[in-house]
Specification:
This protein has 543 residues and is an alpha/beta fold. The protein folds into 2 domains: 10-135, Chitobiase/beta-hexosaminidase domain 2-like (Chitobiase, domain 2, 2-Layer Sandwich), CATH 3.30.379; 141-526, TIM Barrel, CATH 3.20.20. It is built from 18 helices and 23 strands. The chain has an 8-stranded parallel β-barrel with strand order 10-11-18-19-20-21-22-23, surrounded by 6 helices. Strands 1-9-6-7-5-3-4 form a 7-stranded mixed sheet. Helix 1 packs parallel to helix 3 (96-110) and helix 4 packs parallel to helix 6 (224-236).
């Protein structure tokens, strides 16, 4: 049986065992609604194999793509059925997305060279085994967060990442676009957000207690056309891009660009620059009408760019010290009749919850948005363990589980001096394979609020695309299986079988050019020895 990642629900051979052979005559018949998948197959598998895969529908020798209502009934909209005999390949989906996931499985069946961008063996015989695969995802939110704020990932890197997500049947890219250390999306009304906010003069190297600085300026941002391109490229791959504009904390880059956004009666906000180090930053937004109006204007442009039903507004790690010290903030608490600073945070979040709902969108925020009262209709990204997600689900809110102890991919995947800066937890490939999105103790109705899960890749110590690859892979393959496949309870999962199938998956990652961590440990260039790789004596833990 072919070794697929993530594992499908059901797969069996079509007797007698045989092969379907692709050649220059092989046609693609795209039935209504599947033209996009045909285009993807032709440009991707066509490029790798060198076969024309021309459109057509009369001969036996063809790949037939169709949206099939019976597949939708049995396996849901993202479900699919593949039937391969000696004459033809059928990729039937419950929707175009299902057909696309079928096409991803079909590429795995072709072998690792199907993951390249051009043929490497001129006279290679391309074939797939005669099998039936019936498959469907467990969750509808199968996400990855990329933090492009701490270290900018140029546009090509994001597009490449979308291809890697698609290859693992992941369907949400959460782009963390703004933070203390950088603002990464062009906003026409406020050009200084990128003129000033996208650049920092220098960068702390490694752990925040490290004595090292990279004295080179760092930055970059996506123009509006870059974002349009990213969103369209994602849509072609049935991936939703969820933008995050983090408020009211994580805002120093915005305040550096527009000092009036900060608590100017407490600190001299004109003296602030884009932050050059890591940790939780005290410089948060001022709770004024002018600041709300500024962010409404920002979000108006963001909604125009991102069709995602969900818009992430952050809400995490907002220290309240400046609001405590600010006469303006205290007056606001009085005017609004709030009990204190925690409620001021809720007021901030509720404002944008209403504002987004009026525009047909839904707010999603980090689990701190639960503090001081959860905004009605808001969904929660549960990052500080499962507790926030459990509380939110019990209160009838939708949840994306991303507990840092389990699925923070910036954390190390092994102990040892060769691994990167030790922040957070050690999570091995096996640990991630045993991640479970639905915690025990939820009723069926509460569990139905768990939309899915997300692996978060923060980039304080992950400076380049190569480092992103190292942190993400192979763990993202294990994560993908936990959100796509129907697996037993964590303790009963067959990790040995997963490892066996991974042996077939590493060559696919090699063909894709992914600089993953090999099972035996880092390759020489992946090592981060010395001060970067070890905890600094006496340094506070970073999580
Ligand atoms: C987070 O990791 N601060 C959401």
């Amino acid at each position: 049986m072919p070794d697929l990642i993530p594992a499908p629900r059901r797969m069996h051979n079509v007797p007698p065992p045989g092969l379907y052979v692709l050649d220059d005559e092989t046609l693609i018949e795209a039935r209504p609604g599947t033209e996009g998948v045909a285009h993807w197959l032709r440009t991707t598998v066509g490029a790798a194999t060198g076969l024309p895969l021309a459109p057509g529908g009369d001969d036996d020798n063809r790949i037939v793509l169709s949206v099939d209502p019976s597949v939708e009934r049995e396996l849901g909209p993202e479900g699919y059925r593949i039937v391969i005999d000696g004459y033809a390949v059928r990729l039937d989906g419950g929707s175009a997305a299902g057909v696309f996931w079928a096409a991803q499985t079909f590429r795995q069946l072709l072998g690792p060279d199907a993951f390249r961008r051009a043929p490497v063996r001129p006279r290679a015989a391309w074939h797939v085994p005669t099998v039936v695969v019936e498959d469907a995802p467990r969750f509808r939110w199968r996400g990855v967060l990329l933090d492009v704020a701490r270290h900018f990932l140029p546009k090509d890197g994001v597009l490449r990442y979308l291809d890697l997500l698609a290859a693992h049947k992941l369907n949400v890219l959460h782009l963390h676009l703004t933070d203390d250390q950088g603002w990464r999306v062009e906003i026409e009304r406020y050009p200084r957000l990128t003129e000033v906010g996208a650049w920092r003069a220098r960068t702390k190297v490694g752990h925040r207690a490290s004595p090292l600085w990279d004295e080179r300026p760092h930055g970059g941002y996506y123009t509006k056309d870059d974002i349009r391109e990213i969103v369209a490229y994602a849509a072609e791959r049935h991936i939703t891009v969820v933008p995050e504009i983090d408020v009211p904390g994580h805002s120093q880059a915005a305040i550096a660009a527009y000092p009036e956004l900060g608590n100017a009666d407490v600190v001299d906000t004109t003296a602030l620059s884009v932050w050059d180090t890591w940790g939780v930053n005290p410089n948060v937004l001022a709770p004024t009408e002018a600041v709300l109006a500024f962010y409404e204007n920002v979000l108006t442009e963001v909604l125009d760019l991102f069709p995602s039903p969900f818009v992430h507004i952050g809400g995490d790690e907002c220290p309240k010290d400046q609001w405590k010290a600010s006469a303006t903030a205290q007056a606001r608490i009085g005017e609004l009749g709030l009990t204190g600073e925690e409620e001021l945070q809720s007021w901030f979040i509720r404002h944008f919850d209403r504002w987004l709902a009026e525009r047909g969108r839904r707010l999603v925020g980090w689990d701190e948005i639960l503090e001081g009262g959860l905004a009605p209709g808001a969904a929660v990204s549960s990052w500080r363990g499962y507790a926030g997600g459990i509380a939110a689900a019990r209160a009838g809110h939708d949840v994306v589980m991303c507990p840092q102890e389990h699925v923070y991919l910036d954390h190390r995947q092994a102990d040892g001096d060769d691994e990167p800066v030790p922040i957070g937890y050690v999570r091995t490939l096996e640990d991630v394979y045993r991640f479970e999105a639905v915690p025990p103790g939820l009723t069926e109705a509460e569990a139905a609020h768990v939309l899915g899960a997300q692996a978060n890749l923060w980039t304080e110590v992950t400076e380049t695309q190569q480092r992103v690859d190292y942190q993400a892979f192979p763990r993202l393959a294990a994560f993908a299986e936990t959100v796509w496949s129907t697996l037993p309870a964590p303790g009963r999962r067959d990790y040995t079988d997963f490892e066996r199938r991974m042996a077939a998956h590493y060559p696919r990652l090699d063909a894709l050019g992914v600089d993953y961590r090999p099972p035996g440990g880092p390759r020489p260039w992946q090592r981060r020895p010395g001060v970067l790789g070890r905890p600094i004596e006496g340094a506070p833990p970073i999580v």
